[in-house]
Design a protein that fits this description.
Radius of gyration: 31 Å
Number of helices: 18
Protein name: PpiC domain-containing protein
Shape: elongated
Domain PpiC: 247-348
Structural class: alpha+beta
Oligomer: single chain
Distance between the termini: 46 Å
Strand content: 5-15%
Pfam family, one: Rotamase_2
Number of strands: 5
Length: 396
């Protein structure tokens, strides 16, 4: 029975994969040229071939997401705008820059949607950010089609907005609500005007939808796959690969990249501490004219590093003044520096000695694991990208 279940799952996976691959889109040269003109405004040196490669790589990324992390296609973040919302902004800008379409239409009356209407209709914002079914049904019964030039109800409109915007609407921000309504209305008008114009140019507007989605989701999908980094986004791919890194790989990485594990192990230093900044400045001037060691003798000041015999190592770095000696440029008298306790110090750090972390050190293990996992993720990505090109017959 278990074997049958595994077989069924395998067949379903293969079937779903074939559906994803069957959705491959062949872009026309007119569509590539259209996007090339659009990209040129932001990246003047980009070539047509680079644009073509980017468009197909974005399509590959969307299919990777459909197979591995489908939720990201609808929304990159639970608190952000929907992908569809971003796609519409992207396309509106594209229409404005490439087609010069004016989306103006007859004035629409929005007086009904004032602050009281919003508060009464939406009620208080849910504490967990999730709408209950009763409110969803209520919003679904409010038709915005006459305003937005396209079949849509209030829930569909609200659901595409970010958590921050939705929160403000529940608080009765009618100005924001009307602004979002107008954005949506103008996009729908621009879309209806753009469709026949693009058709005459041999450009499928549905292809532009896919291109927009690919450009918008590209950073997030690549981050999920572990080949770049985005704030607040973890890569399950990297996490899995990191767990697979073994000791021999870490040792080999250490031997090949030993220079990056070099660290400052010992320094020598002299310094003085003052309650007054003025006195510290005077001492700094004296040290500059003579030497800091001579300035200590002339001024009768105690060397703050005397307890260490002026020889400092990493074991002493719990002390703030020792940390300062490690971060001060070698053979340089420091500026007058304020201590965490509000006093003032002037130091001279010299004879810096360097060493290497051992292959077993935690620093080596951590950095090597991260680097090896990224290398594997990049190779895995490249292999899948090439396989996709072979399966689709795309020649770049």
């Amino acid at each position: 029975m278990k074997k049958v279940a595994i077989l069924v799952i395998t067949l379903l996976g293969a079937f779903y994969h074939s559906l994803v691959m069957a959705s491959f889109t062949q872009y026309s040269s007119d569509e590539v040229n259209f996007m090339h003109r659009a990209y040129l405004k932001h990246k003047p040196e980009i070539t047509i071939n680079e644009v073509r490669t980017r468009l197909y790589e974005n399509q590959f990324l969307l299919q990777q997401a459909a197979l591995k992390t489908p939720a990201i296609i609808k929304r990159q973040s639970a608190v952000g705008f929907s992908t569809q919302y971003h796609v519409e902004r992207y396309l509106k800008n594209l229409f404005d820059s490439q087609l010069a379409i004016k989306a103006q239409s007859s004035q629409v009356k929005l007086d009904t949607y004032d602050s009281q209407w919003l508060k009464h209709t939406l009620g208080p914002y849910p504490k967990n950010g999730q709408y209950v079914q009763s409110l969803i049904k209520k919003m679904q019964q409010i038709d915005l089609t006459p305003i937005l030039y396209k079949p849509i109800n209030l829930y569909e409109f609200i659901d595409a907005l970010s958590m921050q915007v939705r929160f403000k609407l529940h608080r009765g921000d009618s100005k924001l609500f009307k602004s979002e309504l107008i954005k949506k209305r103008q996009f729908n008008i621009a879309f209806s005007k753009a469709k026949p114009i693009l058709a005459k140019q041999n450009i499928d507007i549905e292809h532009l939808y896919e291109i927009a989605k690919g450009d918008i989701l590209r950073p997030s999908i690549q981050s999920w796959l572990g080949i770049n980094t985005m704030m607040h986004m973890q890569s399950p791919v990297l996490e899995k690969l990191e767990k697979q890194v073994n000791k021999s790989e870490i040792k080999a990485f250490y031997q090949a990249n030993k220079s990056q594990f070099k660290f400052l192990s010992q320094v020598k230093a002299h310094g003085a501490q003052f309650a007054s900044r003025t006195n510290a400045v005077d001492f700094r001037t004296l040290a500059d004219n003579k030497s800091l060691k001579q300035a200590l003798v002339i001024s009768g000041k105690q060397d703050i590093y005397a307890q260490y015999n002026s020889e400092l190592n990493r074991k002493n770095k719990s002390s703030w003044v020792v940390q300062l000696a490690f971060t001060t440029k070698e053979n340089t008298i420091s500026a007058v520096i304020r201590t965490p306790r509000g006093e003032w110090v002037v130091i001279h750090s010299y004879e810096h000695q360097f060493d290497y972390f051992s292959p077993e050190d935690e620093t080596v293990r951590y950095q090597a694991t991260k680097a090896i996992a990224k290398q594997k993720a990049a190779q895995q990505y490249e292999n899948n990208w090439l396989k996709w090109q072979n399966k689709t017959g795309v020649i770049l």
